[in-house]
Design a protein that fits this description.
With about 725 residues, the protein is mostly beta strands. About 5% of the residues lie in helices and about 40% in strands. It has four domains: about 140 residues, Immunoglobulin-like (Sandwich); about 240 residues, Sandwich (Jelly Rolls), CATH 2.60.120.200; about 90 residues, Immunoglobulin-like, CATH 2.60.40; about 220 residues, Jelly Rolls. Strand 1 and strand 2 form a beta hairpin.
């Protein structure tokens, strides 16, 4: 009979294989699964804490049904430590394994895809005094997969099976390109046509060209070095390249360890896009070659993979391999199509040769460590977490620190399972605090604002716990550093301000800004200064904005800045619709309808080759305001199409003021946030410069309440927290 603790544990375990399930003062099991490697069958048991070497590797502490025997047990070590710079900045959304938390059992008698169970008892953690796990029986099904590594990686890879839900794949592979692979693949040999899907839940920041996805290949190239895989058809006798023909679909990391030899920062922005690779058997100068990186952007442009819901798919029909990408495992955008006529014989690099009838197919990972230069990213493993199931419980999408606390964004599970708001608990630096909790759409915001300001660069940690709407407990831990922030000096404040609202100066001219990017800040400031000269007259272009109601070219505007040149109520371009954070169709408090920009549409008619939207093109709005601020930390935001700059200056708004936030090119409607600290209570002169090049245009100016996470438009009388 199970103990009460074991009954509770069994009710929580392996719902999704997440690390967030915990029982206080108990050593528990996070996941159990099995996978093959070479001739071994490995059962991986992931515990909630590092476990004792002796008790964890005692075979007698693990009991299987008759016919299955434990032949050996070891602790998984050599994993990246929790204090690695990339792990601190890029935590896995549902946890990860560290040294001595995973036991690898080598067993005999477990058939592929068989359902079985294991009873775990007598295992202790490394606490003082140690906790001993309650005797617990876990049912699980063999994954049916095998894992192997191509090439000769300097550090052998490791795999943790997460039930039948997927795998945690650790690799230090140096490359997957041209003539040589060091790739870890978790595969099934599949004869004939297939359709394989998986979800990229997470990958470490590794190299610019890291590849986490799914692959289909003809051979595994296990233990084959670069010379063997590359081959040399010109040698005597010729050495036929062994590097496998393959196709894959994968995502690149959001950030990576710097690829430049003379690096100044350890991490840099990554490629953060989808790719599809192929090696078709062609040779170059007698050596293996032929990897092509492409993505089909004909229907949906390439974009950052939506981790942790970045779905990949590869199918075979005859000798055609098709790859796909998506965000829900149901709707797909085509990645790349590898037609039957591309496959050639590596023995000569030119003769057509069909694919083998059986291919090795499954999740694959190559961190391509050869491109890593900082020592912090060398001589170590990297993690790829792949799952076959939808992410059906809430997950922590973002933990964003600010000068006085942190904002946490928790996304609902794919099936609508969400956070029970009343159950949310938060600790900050080990102390229980009371956060603000709110829900908008599928996102639950948990916000904590301290009474004081934290020093930039200071280190802090949080633990977030809650119960979801199907009754499961979840917990997330994060560590972070307070980012740098600007401080507005007390000397910038003025004694008083007379009129409410904003002064708005609208300006348009009937030509395209230049030189270079028409949406650059320098070109927008040139227009704001009326500096563009009409070559036909030798004088500045006339202002073609509609200035009815303006005094001296200035509108006195006493409402919120929620502007859109094509709103639902008045738009004339294509299909009118409100855009941005505040829209007519949104639920309160984000249901404020868009309004037209002051001065729009103008009378310009020839700009951008007399485009239909010329009356809205080459526009700027210079907005000035005196904003009353209390001493403390602030987060301000601008949603714009195209660019903007926000600044504050001493005494009066000024083009040369302290720049707080900027977006210095064109874009569609997107938020930009910027943090600052106010040194003393006062009224401060602000300037917002916004500009549009061509087409759609919108602008919202708001703050974010750091205690609740709510966005609040400036000058919004209905909200007492509006500035």
């Amino acid at each position: 009979m199970k103990t009460q603790a074991a009954k509770i544990l069994a009710s929580l375990l392996l719902i999704t294989g997440f690390s967030s399930v915990t029982l206080k003062a108990q050593l528990t099991v996070r996941s159990v699964g099995s996978v093959r490697h070479g001739t071994d069958t490995q059962v991986t048991i992931l515990f909630s804490a590092p476990v004792d070497q002796t008790t964890a590797t005692t075979p007698g502490n693990y009991t299987f049904p008759a016919g299955i025997t434990v032949a050996g047990a070891s602790l998984m070590t050599g994993l990246p430590p929790a204090n690695s710079i990339d792990i601190a900045q890029n935590p896995a959304p549902n946890g990860r394994a560290f040294d001595n938390e995973c036991v690898v059992l080598t067993v005999t008698g477990l058939a592929s895809n068989a359902t079985t169970s294991v009873t775990i008892q007598g295992v202790q953690d490394r606490a003082t005094p140690p906790n001993t796990i309650a005797a617990t029986t876990i049912n699980f099904k063999d994954s049916g997969y095998t894992w192997a590594e191509s090439g000769t990686p300097a550090i052998p890879g490791k795999v943790i099976a997460n039930g039948t839900n997927g795998f945690d794949i650790f690799s230090a592979g140096s490359g997957q390109w041209a003539s040589y692979d060091e790739v870890l693949i978790v595969y099934k040999p599949i004869a004939g046509d297939f359709d394989v899907k998986a979800r990229i839940e997470f990958q470490d920041f590794s190299s610019a060209w890291a590849r986490a996805g799914v692959m289909a290949r003809e051979s595994l190239n296990v233990g084959e070095n670069a010379a063997t895989q590359t081959g040399d058809l010109a040698a005597t006798p010729p050495r036929v390249p062994t590097a496998s023909r393959y196709a894959d679909i994968h995502g690149n990391p959001v950030q990576d360890f710097n690829r430049n030899a003379n690096f100044t920062s350890i991490l840099e922005p990554g490629n953060n896009l989808w790719e599809s690779h192929v090696r078709d058997g062609a040779t170059l100068n007698g050596a293996a070659n032929g990897t092509d990186s492409s993505i089909d952007g004909s229907t949906t442009p390439n974009a950052p993979p939506p981790y942790p819901n970045a779905w990949v798919r590869i199918t075979r029909t005859g000798d055609e391999l098709h790859t796909y990408r998506g965000s829900d495992g149901q709707t797909w955008d085509e990645g790349a199509v590898r037609m039957a006529d591309i496959w050639v014989d590596p023995a000569d690099g030119t003769t057509p040769k069909p694919l083998n009838s059986t291919l090795y197919v499954g999740p694959s990972y190559g961190p391509e460590t050869v491109n890593i230069n900082p020592p912090e990213g060398k001589n170590r493993l990297f993690l790829y977490q792949v799952r076959f199931n939808a992410l059906d419980v809430p997950y922590l999408r973002l933990a964003e620190p600010n000068a006085s606390g942190v904002l946490l964004l928790v996304e609902d599970g794919a099936t609508g399972v969400s956070v029970n708001s009343s159950s949310v608990r938060l600790t900050f630096d080990g102390n229980s605090v009371t956060p603000g909790v709110s829900k908008a759409g599928t996102t639950t915001t948990v916000a904590y604002k301290a009474a004081s300001i934290f020093a930039a660069g200071s280190s802090h940690s949080i633990t977030l716990t809650f119960t979801n709407t199907i009754g499961n407990a979840q917990s997330f831990q994060r560590s972070f550093t307070i980012p740098a922030y600007l401080t507005i000096p007390a000397s910038y404040a003025v004694a008083s301000a007379s009129n409410p609202g904003f002064n708005v100066r609208a300006h348009q001219f009937d030509a395209t800004r230049g030189p270079g990017d028409e949406n650059s800040l320098v070109n927008a400031e040139e227009q704001a200064a009326n500096g563009y000269i009409d070559p036909a007259t030798g004088s500045p272009y006339p202002n073609t904005a509609e200035l009815t109601g303006a005094t001296g070219g200035i509108f006195a505007y006493n409402s919120v800045i929620n502007w859109n040149n094509n709103g639902t109520a008045y738009g004339t371009l294509g299909t009118p619709a409100d855009i941005g954070n505040w829209r007519d169709i949104n639920a309160a408090p984000y249901n404020i309808p868009d309004t037209q920009f002051p001065g729009m549409p103008g009378s310009a008619a020839n700009n951008h080759n007399t485009a239909l939207d010329a009356a809205f093109d080459t526009f700027i709005e210079e907005v000035t305001a005196y904003v009353q601020l209390k001493q403390g930390a602030y987060r301000m935001g601008v949603n714009s199409d195209d660019g903007f700059k926000v600044s504050v200056a001493p005494g009066a708004p000024d083009v040369f003021g302290l720049q707080l936030g900027v977006f210095n090119t064109g874009r569609g409607s997107t938020d930009s946030f910027f943090d600052f600290v106010v040194a003393a209570d006062g009224i401060y002169p602000f300037r917002l410069l916004w500009w549009n090049g061509a087409g759609g245009a919108n602008l919202e100016w708001f703050t974010v309440d750091l205690g609740t996470g709510q966005k609040i438009l400036l000058n919004q009388p209905s909200n007492p927290n509006s500035l």
